[in-house]
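In response to the reviewer comment on reproducibility (Comment 2.3), we provide here a single inverse folding case reported in full, input and output, so that an independent group could reproduce the run without further information from us. The structure tokens appear first.
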């Protein structure tokens, strides 16, 4: 089964073609980093406009690279949320249009579930269930439990900023540019974790997480130290604290649940230090997508559409009747 995936939930316009859920025939991502960088974050209206300008070309390029035409596609998968509403609408409208003209059915998909799926593209055969799956991105820091049937249950989430958002805000405080994750990642490689950051605790004893206190600490430290600030050391300390928090959370739930695999997904899972720490901690039970499938991409969307249709036999709505915003 050949599936066309479409992803426009934030600032990446992406179309991919995936055969049987794992064979990626093409995966095109048109990044809008240059558009949003001067603003230090994603401007929703600009994101929608650029998706609109780019989507057709990205779609044509994906077909061309895969060496097929639309007639070879069996199913279309499209992200419908969560994300920026105007941005999502561009992808959904495009999917509806292609579906209507070609008669190919489409299936609307959840972005967080797509991130979890991203690690199954390359590692599906090795991953053993039940598993714990972290989705750590610009919009989410959510820990899920996947049972033997791959049913998903939310265990813990951030109550305020997501980890990726904290990376982006940290970089913005330092005027480094956007997105902050890869930039802080690079600085941290040459630094020592000499700063002691606060480890947030929930006053109600909940397993949820919070990162706004860390953000405030970073801002105060930058203001207080001024010219004397050692950016590399602060970046290394920040990364170490984030890794400590996420690993501790996984370990806590490993004690409460039977778990055979640990999955790390979402844009922040591209982080070199985080990948290293998780690998050291969880060894062969640990799985992470290649960086190209960590950040937003449509291959994970196409792969999830296949999984829903073929492996779970889920019903989905045909053509343009699904989801009217
Ligand atoms: O999954 P994603 O592409 O989009 C959302 O669904 O949010 O994640 C984007 C986030 C951004 O906050 C970006 O700074 C972060 O992922 N990110 C990283 C790295 N690469 C991207 N964070 C830390 N280290 C990286 N290497
Ligand atoms: Zn995402």
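Designed residues, in position order:
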């Amino acid at each position: 089964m050949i599936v066309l995936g479409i992803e426009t939930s934030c600032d990446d316009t992406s179309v991919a073609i995936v055969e049987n859920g794992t064979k990626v025939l093409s995966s095109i991502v048109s990044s809008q980093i240059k558009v949003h960088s001067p603003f230090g974050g994603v401007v929703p209206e600009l994101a929608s406009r650029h998706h609109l300008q780019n989507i057709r070309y990205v779609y044509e390029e994906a077909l061309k690279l895969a060496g097929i035409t639309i007639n070879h596609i069996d199913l279309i998968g499209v992200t419908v949320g969560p994300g920026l509403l105007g941005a999502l609408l561009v992808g959904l409208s495009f999917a509806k249009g292609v579906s209507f003209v070609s008669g190919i059915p489409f299936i609307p998909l959840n972005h967080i579930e797509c991130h979890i799926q991203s690690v199954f593209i390359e590692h599906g055969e090795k991953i053993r269930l039940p598993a714990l799956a972290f989705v750590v991105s610009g919009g989410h820091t959510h820990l899920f439990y996947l049972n033997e049937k791959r049913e998903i249950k939310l265990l813990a989430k951030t109550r305020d900023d997501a980890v990726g958002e904290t990376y982006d805000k940290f970089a913005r405080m330092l005027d480094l540019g956007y997105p902050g994750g890869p930039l802080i990642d690079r600085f941290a490689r040459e630094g020592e974790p000499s700063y002691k950051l606060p480890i947030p605790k929930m006053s109600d004893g909940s397993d949820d997480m919070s990162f706004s206190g860390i953000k405030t600490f970073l801002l105060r430290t930058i203001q207080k130290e001024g010219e004397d600030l050692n950016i590399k050391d602060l970046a290394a300390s920040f990364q170490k604290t984030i890794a400590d928090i996420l690993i501790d959370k996984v370990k806590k739930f490993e004690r409460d649940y039977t778990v055979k695999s640990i999955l790390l997904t979402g844009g922040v899972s591209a982080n070199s230090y985080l990948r290293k720490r998780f690998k050291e901690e969880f060894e062969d039970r640990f799985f992470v997508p290649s960086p190209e499938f960590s950040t937003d991409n449509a291959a994970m969307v196409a792969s999830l559409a296949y999984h829903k249709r073929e492996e779970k036999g889920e019903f989905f709505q045909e053509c343009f009747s699904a989801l009217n915003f």
